[in-house]
Amino acid sequence: MKHALFAAALAAALVACATSPTGRTQLRLFSGSEMNQMGIAAFDEMKAKDPLANNPQQSRYVQCVVEALVRVLPPDWQQLPWEAQVFQNEQANAFALPGGKVGVNTGMFQVARNQDQLAAVIGHEIGHVVAQHSNERVSHTALAQTGMTAVQAYAGTRGATPQNTQALMSALGAGVQVGYLLPFSRVQETEADVVGQQLMARAGFDPAAAAALWENMIAASGRAGVPQLLSTHPDPQNRIRELAARAPSLAADYQQARQEGRTPRCG
Question: Could you tell me which InterPro entries the record lists for this protein (predicted)?
Answer without folding.
Answer: Mito/Outer_Membr_Metalloprot, Peptidase_M48
